[in-house]
Specification:
This protein starts with 21 loop residues before the first helix and ends with a helix. It has one domain. The chain is 28% helix and 13% strand. By secondary structure, it is of the alpha+beta class. The chain contains 5 helices and 4 strands; from the N terminus they run αβαββαβαα. The structure holds iron/sulfur cluster (2 copies). One iron/sulfur cluster binds next to helix 1.
Length: 149
């Protein structure tokens, strides 16, 4: 699922963006509209099968960038105000305080920089079918192993 919010590229050309006014111009406060969590690097068919389960959930995607694999859940923070402000600004978590607007989500869709990005069961399943010749046999292999115990 691509982010649907507008970015710096959509602003009128006469507006000069500075580090000081950037967050004010970013009306949707994009960085407050999703969470990410690092995942273990998938290697086996069952690792990818697990990712299939993740992306089968509404608004969940997985991606790989220079830092590894991540789950992303597009789900706005409950403290995000209609005007884009933070409802708990003075008491906001540390991760919010450390987030820099230097090269952030407002500059462009984050997925443009991803090495791999899967936002649906279909897109990941298609990838897995290319990556693993025996993709459809992964369950049989596991069932056989279980019966041998
Ligand atoms: S850090 Fe970036 S994405 Fe977050 S509010 Fe500021 S400009 Fe928007
Ligand atoms: S706590 Fe405030 S700054 Fe942090 S994500 Fe929520 S709205 Fe944004």
């Amino acid at each position: 699922m691509a982010f649907e919010f507008f970015t710096i590229k959509d602003l009128p050309k006469n507006i000069k963006v500075t580090p000081e006014n950037k967050c004010t111009l970013c009306k949707h406060s994009i960085c407050c509209t999703y969470v990410t969590q690092q995942l273990e690097t998938p290697r086996s068919m069952m690792d990818y099968d697990y990712l299939l389960w993740l992306v089968s959930h509404r608004n969940v995607s997985v991606f790989q960038d220079d830092d590894g694999w991540f789950l992303s859940a597009a789900n706005p923070c409950l403290h995000l105000q209609p005007d884009g402000g933070c409802g708990i600004y003075e008491k906001r978590p540390q991760i919010c305080r450390e987030h820099s607007n230097d090269c952030c989500e407002f500059d462009g869709p984050a997925e443009e920089d991803y090495k791999k990005y899967f936002d649906s069961y279909e897109s990941l399943d298609k990838y897995c079918r290319k990556k693993f010749k025996k993709w459809d046999k992964r369950f049989k292999k596991r069932e056989k192993k279980g019966n041998e115990k």
